[in-house]
């Protein structure tokens, strides 16, 4: 890996374009390096994972709205190769790629249940999959090129997440997703460095937004934000392919992203990227979720399940203090100062970002479910509310250090729970990483991804269609040009009929 120093440059400075971060990423994307077998296998795992969580969310209201918007945009042409258009998850018919990516991106993100990478900032790199698959379907791309594109997309987003913190400046993490989708599409479509460079600049310029989408009372926009970034990146690549340019240097410019949205003119960022000919393996450093909750609550859920028997009667709890990292404390803990995180009437998205609620329910139930654990009647139980309000978080410098550690054996996203009983007895336990983490007690492997898909597809996709999809996905590298429509599992019509009725909008 090469570590690139990135900082603001004055317009009058001598700053050759080949030194721009966007150009360096474009060079990585244009490098025709072979995808290693373990990267390819993990790409397939994550495609299965995305399909699993999409099945679980398919008739939820935000997903239904996005799907209906997409269905109003049939593909008018197949672009360069005359393909049949892109597929919207669960339904037949060809739609315009950017709108299919929009709908499928919302389906993937709605339940906060797919893959994650945490470093200097946050990311859900599986958000790259819907836009790349949609474009591949519309243009008739083969499976091997899709794999190459996704390897680049993961590499780009994960390495930007390693080097550039957006959160401390209250910029939403999808600002790393726009460039990664553009880079991944560049690889998949075998575009030249110049075209990819312009597309990356446009995609970043148009996908920077504040983190208010994840603050206070969190709305359905949390699910829409990455879908928007993917849609915008597709359109940026289309414009760049037609010869249009972008603001540059987009990160380093005097009025660019670093100068005014991030650390300012004095800030230096260090961004690692593969060198020429170096394999793209960053996807192997990411991890998926066993539980439908914000990633930093994965280990606390497992810890709560482990502590139940030691605690015994939960009514005897006086207080619970979760000692954890800065990020966990201020984003999903009491350090956020969000009263909504203790509100039983709060949205699902808000409860998903309340480790206090999540730890209470996991202690009581000994399990976690993507629907039952968030149900209004579950959040309104009087004993749950009482326990919930006994839980707080504090930042522990050691947990913060481990959160940011670059050593895999040290990196941690968990907490130490200090449970004080009414009789004064103190029970403590800690868990650094979730059981499903690659270094956890039960690391996810192919069979776990398949099991997750099977469980979440039960009653949504019939057994034969499940088997067909899994067979196609696992043979992705061998899928010929024009056959990627088979990656779309169809949902039973009786299930889709249960989707909520929503008001009409502009699009018909």
From TrEMBL:
Q: Which reaction does it catalyse?
A: citrate = D-threo-isocitrate; (2S,3S)-2-methylcitrate = 2-methyl-cis-aconitate + H2O
Family the entry assigns: Belongs to the PrpD family.
Per the UniProt record, the lineage of the source organism begins with: Bacteria, Bacillati, Actinomycetota, Actinomycetes, Mycobacteriales
Q: Name a biological process GO annotation.
A: propionate metabolic process
The record places domain MmgE/PrpD N-terminal at 19-266
Recorded protein name is 2-methylcitrate dehydratase
A GO MF annotation of the entry reads: 2-methylcitrate dehydratase activity
Q: What InterPro entries would the database entry show?
A: 2-Methylcitrate_Dehydratase, MmgE/PrpD_sf, MmgE/PrpD_sf_1, MmgE/PrpD_sf_2, MmgE_PrpD, MmgE_PrpD_C, MmgE_PrpD_N
Known EC number(s)? 4.2.1.3, 4.2.1.79
The species this protein was found in: Mycobacteroides saopaulense
Q: Which domain of life is it from?
A: Bacteria
- Record's keyword terms, sorted: Lyase, Tricarboxylic acid cycle
- Pathway this chain belongs to: Organic acid metabolism; propanoate degradation; Carbohydrate metabolism; tricarboxylic acid cycle; isocitrate from oxaloacetate: step 1/2
Subunit structure of this chain's protein: Monomer.
Q: What role does it play?
A: Involved in the catabolism of short chain fatty acids (SCFA) via the tricarboxylic acid (TCA)(acetyl degradation route) and via the 2-methylcitrate cycle I (propionate degradation route). Catalyzes the dehydration of 2-methylcitrate (2-MC) to yield the cis isomer of 2-methyl-aconitate. Could also catalyze the dehydration of citrate and the hydration of cis-aconitate.
User: Can you give the residue ranges of the MmgE/PrpD C-terminal domain?
Assistant: 291-475
What Pfam families has UniProt attached to this entry? MmgE_PrpD_C, MmgE_PrpD_N
